[in-house]
Design brief:
By secondary structure, the chain is of the alpha+beta class. The chain folds into two domains: 2-64 and 117-247, Thrombin, subunit H (Beta Barrel); 255-401, Serine Threonine Protein Phosphatase 5, Tetratricopeptide repeat. It contains 14 helices and 13 strands. It has helices at residues 2-15, 49-52, 65-72, 75-96, 239-247, 255-258, 262-278, 282-295, 300-312, 316-329, 334-347, 350-363, 368-380, 384-401, and strands at residues 20-27, 30-41, 44-47, 59-63, 117-118, 120-127, 132-137, 157-164, 167-175, 185-189, 203-205, 211-217, 232-238. The strands form two sheets. A seven-stranded antiparallel sheet has the order 5-4-1-2-3-7-6. Helix 12 runs antiparallel to helix 13 (368-380).
């Protein structure tokens, strides 16, 4: 059984390679950030808005796995291979044409790897609420088959394909929320963060190699976190969200013109806020997040992030207000409920915090931290038996993850 799974993993990784590309944003030759994308039609790829919308005036390169592989071959290896291939062709030529006066030139292009370069013509559709954009490409690629997300079951093994920096990777995960997968997919992955970050915009595939979702953010979007058991929970959009956007595809809009839409420029401000947040500069982060919300007041992710920054500065009530707005706009994100519950704990509102943890567990019943947090709130209320049940559940999940 394990052998079959390994074969399936290798097959899916190989078959998706030519359909999955790396989006590399550069400025004066320097890489700003990378993300993933994949072909959904011969001339169209899909990715997250934040991968290309958060960096104004930067160039965006669409790079294939084949190009990266060509670049990684050391020059002395390339020379060595050329010499070996030349000698081989000479021997083949000698024995094939021995005794013949015919002297044909060897086929120089037989083993040559062609570099494929794609240029982005523009945007044909986007969904700013769900962080998706459809891009028109100048050259044809191989689209991935689209699957059905209605058949997804909890515990089902899936595959996430994309790029970590410029390395093509395929990682295995398991669906956590099969019964709640109509709006968001939660995928449990046991991988170091360095092997997951960068998959934003990449496809989520079932065992048949069909697309059932799009990675919305590989790390750091509230749901995407490492819990006490060492797992990362990756948030993805189900394929029906992608299909709905594709149905609304229209005329091509140039990339720079598209970036000037207020709801798209909000991604730029949010990206700057994320940088400040990561550096622990919470006041500056809040300023950028506020600027983002002025451009797009329905940006749930930014309310969540600003709430976290406010909580870190001690503005717990302000944090809860932001979490309220984030939940109003995105009621299916387990991480937001967890964070709001954590803030309510600080105010001693334990009953209300428990309700938030209940919702977080409903949406993601395999996160160890959610049970530990709910257990602490119950313990604070003197509900020691109920608290111990939560702590025991957390230990059980932790133990399972180590097997």
């Amino acid at each position: 059984m394990e052998h079959e799974r390994d074969y399936q993993f290798q097959h899916i990784a190989a078959s998706c390679k030519e359909s999955t590309v790396c989006l590399k944003t550069t400025f004066i030759g320097l890489t700003a950030q990378t993300g993933s994308a994949f072909f959904v039609e011969p001339d169209k790829i899909v990715t997250n808005i934040h991968v290309i919308g958060g960096v104004p005036i930067f160039n965006v390169k669409v790079i294939t796995a084949k190009q990266f592989e060509n670049k990684r071959i050391p020059i002395h290896h390339r020379i060595s291979d050329t010499v070996k291939n030349g000698i081989l062709r000479l021997f083949q030529h000698f024995f094939t044409h021995l005794g013949s006066e015919k002297n044909e030139k060897p086929n120089q292009s037989q083993n040559r790897e062609e570099k494929i370069v794609y240029a982005i013509e523009g945007v044909t559709a986007f969904d700013d609420k769900n962080d998706l954009v459809l891009l028109k490409i100048t050259k044809a690629g191989v689209p991935l088959p689209i699957g059905n997300c209605n058949d997804i079951q909890s515990g089902e093994q899936v595959y996430i394909v994309g790029y970590v920096d410029t390395q093509y990777k395929c990682i295995k995960g398991n669906i956590v929320n099969g019964n709640n997968s109509d709006k968001q997919l939660m995928i449990k992955v046991k991988k170091p963060e360095k092997d997951v970050a960068g998959h934003s915009g990449g496809p989520v595939l079932n065992s048949k190699g069909e697309v059932i979702g799009v990675v919305a953010s590989a790390l750091g979007s509230g749901s995407n976190k490492r819990d006490a058991s060492g797992h990362i929970f990756v948030h993805a959009l189900p394929v029906n969200v992608l299909q709905e956007m594709m149905e609304n595809s229209g005329q091509v809009e140039p990339l720079e013109k598209w970036r000037k839409h207020p709801q798209i420029s909000a991604y730029n401000k949010a990206d700057l806020g994320n940088m400040k947040l990561a550096a622990g500069k919470y006041k500056q982060a809040i300023e950028y997040y506020t600027a983002a919300l002025q451009r797009n007041p329905n940006f749930a992710f930014v309310y969540f992030k600003r709430g976290y920054a406010k909580d870190e500065l001690g503005d717990v009530k302000g944090a809860i207000e932001d979490y309220d707005n984030a939940i109003r706009l995105n009621p299916d994100n387990a991480g937001i409920y967890n964070n709001r519950g954590y803030s309510k704990n600080k105010l001693g509102a334990y009953e209300s915090a428990i309700e938030d943890y209940d919702n977080a567990i409903r949406l993601n019943p395999e996160d160890v931290d959610f049970y530990n947090n709910r257990g602490r709130a119950k313990k604070a209320l003197g509900k020691h038996k109920d608290a111990e049940e939560d702590f025991d559940k957390a230990k059980e999940l932790n133990s399972k993850s180590k097997k």
